[in-house]
């Protein structure tokens, strides 16, 4: 039989002899949450609603630490036979991921829905498998974020990095600093409407993410990307630094240059900064990151730190050190874009998120951090155009990023000095300068997120014969009907041999 349509590809997959398992008349037993998720996926894909039963033909369970149970966190074992299906997760997350794989295996044979006979033993390569959504350039409401979480989790991504603040707007209510959402949340790129999450909204997002085994990583970007802060608290914001590049970006976009105290709706970067060394700025940082830590159950807070071109180098090092200290004191681990790994002395425990190219600059200092998340912009940035004529996206990261380019990079060895054990994981960011609707999100994210998801979950190409571009493109092509059934408005890239029902 052909290689089953599974993305990311499992650690071990063996096809079995025998007849497939027929879905008609199947009953589901076991873990209630997993059964509900399987029913949702099966109903969307086939229109069939499997019945619940005390001892069903599809058995879903979390391991009881027996000798045949999976051991690694998030791992699972899946077996399909003619008369039964069993999915056993090492934990609730592993069972959830096994259910996602089971839904991908569904296919039609002679007019009936079946599951092919297989044995799968699966576990993730990296602990951190992330995707980022920028809600600052354009704002997306709670339902859109929850749908994005569902889509990411279906590909076994387990972290959602929310870029909550930027020059164009502040998107999270903080009771310690109410002016941020009162004065700095109303606009977006191009003059579009802004918005923000109340603390109740944020709690809903967190709860939904937890139900999908996704950890929210909130980002408050400092000391640059802070023009919006100046609308609310002008005493801690420096005047915009209007370089030739900023003026050129404004002219090319037909937009105004940034002006202190006025909302900014362009897409230039690097012009804003906080006033470093001012006691009022220190108090602001303590309030913001302290309250953010109290609101966020996950272990990570992201402090940004990128493109702080308007900040003196010594001031930059000082504010990074201070903010990492505030985050650590709140019991969290700080993540920052890789520029922060250049500061002296390097703050202990800092995780660097690398956003340079697949071929790094010799001056890259990300290896100095305690661990690294890899997001090479010319391969993993989902906001890059998939081809030059695509109506959405940008092209600054070495031109368009095809699906093949998104797939054919390897984390190990990408950064000199970063050993495999230093890699926390990978992340695919989506910046939203050109993204205005949930359909726009889908169009840029799918199918390229599947490429990065496979890099984060599956064994390295050297350890798996299925980790090839030809295998991947065929397997992703088989997911088209499932994605359509789930309402994912993916881009039917000509690189992929898409299958019909």
UniProtKB/TrEMBL annotation:
Query: What name does UniProt use for this protein?
Result: beta-N-acetylhexosaminidase
- All copies of the Beta-hexosaminidase bacterial type N-terminal domain together span 4-123
Q: What class of enzyme is it?
A: hydrolase
The answer to whether keyword Ion transport applies is no
Instruction: Name the family.
Output: Belongs to the glycosyl hydrolase 20 family.
Task: Keywords in alphabetical order, please.
Answer: Glycosidase, Hydrolase
What range(s) does the Glycoside hydrolase family 20 catalytic domain occupy?
126-459
Q: Which PANTHER family does the annotation name? A: BETA-HEXOSAMINIDASE, BETA-N-ACETYLHEXOSAMINIDASE
Catalyses which reaction(s): Hydrolysis of terminal non-reducing N-acetyl-D-hexosamine residues in N-acetyl-beta-D-hexosaminides
Task: Name the species this protein comes from.
Answer: Microbacterium wangchenii
Q: Does the keyword Hydrolase belong to this entry?
A: yes
Tell me the leader sequence span: none
Q: Which Pfam families match?
A: Glyco_hydro_20, Glyco_hydro_20b
EC numbers:
3.2.1.52
């Amino acid at each position: 039989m052909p290689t089953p349509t599974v993305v990311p590809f499992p650690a071990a997959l063996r096809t079995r002899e025998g007849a497939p398992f027929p879905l008609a008349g199947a009953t589901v037993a076991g873990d209630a949450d997993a059964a509900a998720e399987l029913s949702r996926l099966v109903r969307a894909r086939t229109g069939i609603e499997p019945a619940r039963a005390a001892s069903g033909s599809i058995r879903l369970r979390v391991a009881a630490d027996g000798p045949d149970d999976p051991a690694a966190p998030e791992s699972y074992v899946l077996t399909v036979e003619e008369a039964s299906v069993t999915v056993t997760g090492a934990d609730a997350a592993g069972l959830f991921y096994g259910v996602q794989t089971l839904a991908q295996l569904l296919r039609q044979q002679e007019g009936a829905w079946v599951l092919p006979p297989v044995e799968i033993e699966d576990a993730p390569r990296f602990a951190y498998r992330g995707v980022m959504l920028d809600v600052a350039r354009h704002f997306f409401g709670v339902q859109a974020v929850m749908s994005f979480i569902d889509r990411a989790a279906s590909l076994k991504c387990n972290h959602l990095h929310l870029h909550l603040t930027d020059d164009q707007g502040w998107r999270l209510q903080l009771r310690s600093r109410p002016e941020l959402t009162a004065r700095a949340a109303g606009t977006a790129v191009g003059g579009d409407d802004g918005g923000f999450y109340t603390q109740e909204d944020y709690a809903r997002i967190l709860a939904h993410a937890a139900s999908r085994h996704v950890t929210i990583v909130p980002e408050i970007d400092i000391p640059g990307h802070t023009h919006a802060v100046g609308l609310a608290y002008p005493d801690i914001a420096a005047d915009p630094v209007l370089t030739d590049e900023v003026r050129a970006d404004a002219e090319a976009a037909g937009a105004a240059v940034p002006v202190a105290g006025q909302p900014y709706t362009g897409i230039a970067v690097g012009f804003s900064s906080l006033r470093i060394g001012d006691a009022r700025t220190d108090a602001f940082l303590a309030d913001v990151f302290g309250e953010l830590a109290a609101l966020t159950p996950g272990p990570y807070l992201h402090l940004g730190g990128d493109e702080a071109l308007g900040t003196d180098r010594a001031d930059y090092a000082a504010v990074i050190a201070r903010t990492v200290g505030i985050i650590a004191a709140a019991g969290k681990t700080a993540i920052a874009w890789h520029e922060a790994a250049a500061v002296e002395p390097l703050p202990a425990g800092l995780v660097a998120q690398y956003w340079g190219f697949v071929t790094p600059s010799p001056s890259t200092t990300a290896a100095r951090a305690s661990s690294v998340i890899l997001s090479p912009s010319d391969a993993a940035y989902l906001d890059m155009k998939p081809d030059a004529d695509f109506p959405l996206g940008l092209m600054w990261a070495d031109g368009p990023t095809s699906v093949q380019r998104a797939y054919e990079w390897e984390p190990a060895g990408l950064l000199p000095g970063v050993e495999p054990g230093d890699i926390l994981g990978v992340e695919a960011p989506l910046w939203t300068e050109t993204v205005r609707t949930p359909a726009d999100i889908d169009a840029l994210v799918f199918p390229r997120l599947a490429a990065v998801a496979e890099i984060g979950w599956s064994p390295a190409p050297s350890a798996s014969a299925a980790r090839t571009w030809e295998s991947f493109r065929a397997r992703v092509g088989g997911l088209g009907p499932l994605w359509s059934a789930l309402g994912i408005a993916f881009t039917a890239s000509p690189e992929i041999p898409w299958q019909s029902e």
